[in-house]
Amino acid sequence: MARIAEFAQFRPDGEWLIEGWGVEPDIAVDNLPHATFSGQDAQLQTAVSFLANKIATEPPSPLVPRPLPPLGTPGKSADRLR
User: Fold this and answer.
1) Cα gap 69→74, rounded to integer Å
2) Which pTM does this prediction carry?
3) Model confidence over 35-57: pLDDT tens digits?
4) Which residue from 17, 33, 55, 58 could staple onto 9, CB 3.0 to 4.6 Å apart?
5) Torsion angle, CA of 53/54/55/57, rounded to 10 degrees?
């Protein structure tokens, strides 16, 4: 749905500004009504496939646990609270 303001608004480059346009998707996927009614979700399946492929080709670096910080409030000495 696009909303048009009562008075025309233009961007700095002179293009007509349409409110409610949103963000263009990186991957365009058609979600057909009958498939959606049948419980299928083409957008979700495409996203899962894309991310699975991305993880397979570019695995994330392993997380390295850090030691626990010393007791007290960060940046303050706990001794002064006694």
Assistant:
1) 8
2) 0.51
3) 989 999 999 999 999 999 999 99
4) 17
5) 80
Comparing 25-29, 33-37, 70-74, which segment has the lowest mean pLDDT?
A: 70-74
Q: What tokens does 48 get? A: 């899962």
At residue 21 the predicted structure's pLDDT band, cuts being 50, 70 and 90, is: low
Structure tokens at 76: 């303050």
Could you tell me which residues are beta bridge partners of residue 10? 16
For every residue of the chain, DSSP letters joined together read --B--SS--B-TTSPBP-BT-----SS-----HHHHHTT--HHHHHHHHHHHHHHHHSPPPPP-PPPPPPSS-TTS-GGGG-
